[in-house]
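Deliverable D5.2: sample structural annotation.
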Amino acid sequence: MSPKFGLQESDPNAPPPPVNKCDVFDFTKLRRYKAKRKEWLDWYGFQKGEPNSIEGQIVQMTFEDMSYRMMTKPRVEAPQDVNISARSLLLAHMLDVGYAARQVLAIRRLLDKGSHVMSMQRLLNNIKANRHLITRENYVAHDGKPYDPDGYESLPASPDIQMFGVDAPVFFGYLMSGERHKVFDKLSGVPAANRSRTDLISEKIFDRLESWLRSAEAEKLVTLSHKFFAHAADAATRGNLTHASFPFSDVEKAQRAIVRVERAITDDILFIGVAREVVASEPLGFLNRLDSPYVTTEMIAKMDAHWDELKAERNTWSKGYENDLYS
């Protein structure tokens, strides 16, 4: 094909060229790949009006996990002679139960195998099922980049090249093409000397990612979710599992596996080219007022009275049902 195509002489942020202007041989397969790639990225990335994106779930999961670990640190490390509300049994109980439920359900959602959910497992499964579309030529040239990273050698001299040398805009596409080839070499297991446009990602890559997601720690948390948080399992189905089995170390291991699979998919398999940290920036001043008392002495009396009001109201719920039931 002619070296003059696609985005090589255009703004890197410009819309990609039409399929028939891309440096591939199989236009039909490229169309199908581009449609699936867009679908995968729509499942993954932040979008207005979509509260369940995979990226959003991961950001929220890590933020809440770190917040809990930070908020409970004073329980142990503050001097024992210092009277702080962080050691309140009621507050500790509410934080612990909320943390366990939120983390277990977050991990369970990301590992959900359903066909109509926004989960990391579904994303991995769908990419694997469409592995045949992710050919080397589609991977490298789907957005107008040249397939041959050395094609710049045949370019005629131009004022840009003479002025900027290797930094000339005309070389951008070739540099990106070279980087994509290098990553695909690792994904496919094919040496650079044996590259072919029809190379595919090795099935071993998907098997390894699956093993990371379905680790023993993650499966244990999913089981806890089924038995205690999403459902109230009876003794026969719980077996020897107890709520006290909840291990905080397993949460961290499961989270790490999810993040590793996320980055393998987005940074390597889909090559989105977006640099970002695992942990989003914390809200400005989110620790403000934590050095203040939780409540005043006067408010404790009002809280106690409110408990009595709630208790009295709820105790009426069991009264008079007979009239409604048997009338």
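Annotation notes: Confidence is low (pLDDT under 50) at residues 1-10, 230-244. The chain has two domains: 19-290, 295-327.
The annotation will be released with the project's public dataset once the embargo ends.
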